[in-house]
Amino acid sequence: MKKLFFSVLPLVAFFSSPAHALISQEQQKVVLDIINSQAAAGIKAQQIRCSVGNKLCLVKFEIAVDGRKVGCMVDSLRDESDILQNSKEKGLSLSPYFHSALEQCLQRAL
């Protein structure tokens, strides 16, 4: 029982403190919009939570074909530039690291 408690404890801490978010709520909406515009048909990002203390983001997806929910965790994030980047050519987009991590996670899940 103690082992289960200690494995769930980090998740509770991760989701309980929005005051220490790595990106703002507005940026979260932008990231979700970008992910959904680039996602394959039938895959929709529903929520993103990023933590400064844990230096990671959790993105929740729904797979429309079978209704499964999939969570992808991207770690080793230092700041918002590891999630979003802004360039004159492309405008606002996902960083290559963040995009690649999500792609790999979704490939394994499908």
Secondary-structure content class: alpha+beta
**What is the beta-strand fraction?**
25-35%
Q: In whole angstroms, how far apart are the ends?
A: 32 Å
Q: What's the count of strands?
A: 5
Rg for CA atoms: 15 Å
Count up the helices: 3
Question: Please, could you describe this protein's structure?
Answer:
The chain is 39% helix and 29% strand. The chain is built from three helices and five strands. The longest helix is centred in the first third of the chain and has 15 residues. The termini are far apart.
Structure characteristics:
5 strands, 3 helices, alpha+beta, 110 residues, two-stranded antiparallel ribbon, disordered N terminus, three-stranded antiparallel β-sheet, globular
Produce a short descriptive summary:
The protein is α+β, with helices and mostly antiparallel strands.
Give the helices and strands, then pairings.
Blueprint: H1 2-16, H2 25-38, E1 43-51, E2 56-63, E3 68-74, E4 84-87, E5 91-94, H3 96-109
Antiparallel strand pairs: 1-2, 2-3, 4-5
